[in-house]
Write a structure and sequence with these properties.
By secondary structure, this protein is of the alpha/beta class. It folds into two domains: 1-112 and 202-283 and 396-449, FAD/NAD(P)-binding domain, CATH 3.50.50.60; 115-193 and 287-381, Polyamine Oxidase, Chain A, domain 2 (Alpha-Beta Complex), CATH 3.90.660.10. The chain has helices at residues 46-57, 99-107, 129-151, 171-182, 209-216, 259-262, 274-281, 335-343, 348-363, 399-402, 426-448; strands at residues 39-42, 62-65, 77-80, 83-86, 111-113, 119-122, 125-126, 203-205, 222-223, 228-232, 238-242, 247-250, 252-255, 267-269, 284-286, 289-294, 305-310, 318-321, 328-333, 372-376, 389-391, 411-413. The strands form six sheets. It has a seven-stranded mixed sheet, with helices on both faces. The chain has a five-stranded parallel sheet with strand order 9-2-1-13-22, with helices on one face. Helix 1 packs parallel to helix 11. The two termini are 25 Å apart.
Length: 449
């Protein structure tokens, strides 16, 4: 590697942040980079960590370059009043196929199966048994109809068009929740892509998902605060430059930078082929943000349970109550709330006022007397994520698979956007990292064998 003059990352400046940055709850011990890496991995989120672990296991010399001064990307656990809380990913989805569930079990991590049932809250009171059943039926009917719709031959269309009629008063809530977990409203989401995510058997992990991922990075060779600005793949040996002008060379590079960030940088030389550029740029930006509530007198008891809130008043699109049995809860902002707050120019305190106002409509002001909101995420304003996850709009479903093909046997892409069965998740990103790493390691072995 060589160092030259310092340059500032060109696409970094214009985004604003919300809360002041927080320190991670757990920082892994990182190894120094090898002198002569065979593979460079760009980004030390789930995909980058999955890739690096796979390469190390296979005896391949790897160097990971990470823009932030911490690892984990969109999986980030912080300590708030002595409790570990996730500002990004929190659920280990898709238990039967999520590699981080199997690995967690093997490592003796404290996994807890997430409860299936939600608290149901209707018009400022607890739901009656018939309402709880009707709520569950509406979700089942919608899921079946959308899965059927996606399996039908014919052109792709918005997922919303497959919602069954006659869901009555529950229909709005079904669309709101599916829009929340999709990252955009269903009229902007591909029906062909929609049902591919496997949601059964979700888990939580004591101490936070971000800290678990950080533990998996122990002893990996990662350079922090090293944003990559340029990838030159014109030659058999790829050249990668970071913002301070340091240049790295290797036989292959695995790019795990979120597709929302890749729209503007790093630059590729030669430029990416048109079809690859179109596949990357065709994803839309999913928005989903956490407001961390500390609310001892909330009406919800038990632990780690979603609250489904119905009625004519404004309601949180998502509310995960009593994290780990504590007075902490996550209020989940969906794309509509996030975009409306941004349009109004709201910073973190504006988000807090909005969250309070919505909760007051549902629970009454008196109930909020001990509510505080110690943290608010703003992944959409973070230059290294620029959103929560990538969303496939109608017609763009083949892009996930298309991006699996390497460029010139030198550049591989990986990350949550490329996962079909676990899109938008940590498990999917990790798996994509291991896939790309196995392929790159194989090419190197053939090339030198
Ligand atoms: C609020 C929120 C809640 C979520 N909830 C869940 C959940 O409950 N369960 C779940 O499974 N998933 C959830 N997700 C999604 C999940 O966090 C992501 O899908 C996953 O973490 C993505 O991993 P990744 O490796 O693809 O990308 P990232 O984690 O974004 O990692 C990419 C890395 O690349 C780095 N980088 C970017 N640009 C450069 C550059 N130029 N040079 C060097 N490095 C660079 C970034 O800093 C980052 O560390 C949530 C996301 C958010 C935002």
């Amino acid at each position: 590697m060589t160092a030259s003059t310092s340059t500032v990352s060109p696409w970094k400046a214009e985004l604003r942040s919300a809360d002041p940055p927080r320190a991670p709850d757990y920082r892994p011990r990182l190894a120094p980079l090898p002198e002569d890496p065979e593979v460079l991995v760009i980004g030390a989120g789930a995909a980058g960590i999955g890739a690096a672990r796979t390469l190390v296991e296979r005896g391949v010399r790897v160097a990971v370059l990470e823009a932030r001064d911490r690892i984990g990307g969109r999986a980030f656990t912080v300590s708030v009043r002595g409790h570990a809380l996730d500002l990004g990913a929190h659920w280990l989805h898709a238990g039967p196929i999520n590699p981080l569930v199997a690995l967690g079990r093997a490592r003796g991590e404290r996994l807890k199966l997430a409860p299936q049932e939600s608290h149901v809250w209707v018009e400022r009171r607890r739901g009656r048994p018939d309402e709880i059943r009707a709520n569950a039926r509406a979700f089942d009917r919608a899921d079946q109809a959308m899965t059927r719709g996606a399996a039908q031959p014919g052109p792709d269309r918005p997922a919303e068009s497959a919602l069954p009629p006659g869901l009555g008063p529950w229909g709005a809530r079904v669309a709101q929740v599916h829009g929340l977990v999709s990252g955009r409203s269903l009229d902007e989401v591909s029906l062909h892509d929609f049902p591919s995510l496997e949601y059964s058997e979700n888990y939580f992990l004591a101490g936070g998902y971000g800290s678990y991922l950080a533990r998996l990075a122990n002893d990996l060779p990662v350079a922090l605060a090293s944003p990559v600005t340029r990838i030159d793949w014109s030659d058999r040996r790829v050249r990668v430059e970071t913002a301070d002008g340091t240049e790295y060379r290797a036989r292959a590079v695995i790019v795990t930078v979120p597709v929302m960030v890749l729209r503007d940088g790093p630059s590729f030389s030669p430029p990416l082929p048109n079809a690859v550029r179109a596949a990357i740029d065709g994803f839309s930006t999913g928005l989903y943000e956490h407001a961390v509530l500390h609310w001892p007198s909330s009406p919800f008891r038990g632990r780690d349970r979603l609250a489904a809130i119905h009625g004519a008043r404004r309601s949180p699109a998502g509310l995960l109550t009593r994290i780990d049995g504590t007075p902490f809860h996550y209020y989940e902002l969906d794309v509509h709330e996030a975009e409306a707050l941004d349009a109004a120019g709201s910073e973190a305190d504006g988000v807090r006022r909005h969250v309070r106002a919505v909760l007051a409509e549902q629970f009454g002001r008196a109930r909020l007397r001990d509510l505080t909101i110690p943290a608010v995420s703003a992944w959409r304003h973070d230059p290294w994520s620029r959103g929560s996850w990538a969303v496939v709009p109608p017609g763009h479903a083949p892009a996930r698979e298309f991006l699996h093909a390497p460029l010139a046997d030198t550049v591989w892409f990986a990350g949550e956007a490329l996962s079909r069965l676990q899109w938008g998740t940590v498990g999917g990103a990790y798996e994509e990292g291991t896939r790309a790493a196995a392929a790159a390691a194989e090419r190197i072995r053939i090339g030198t064998g």
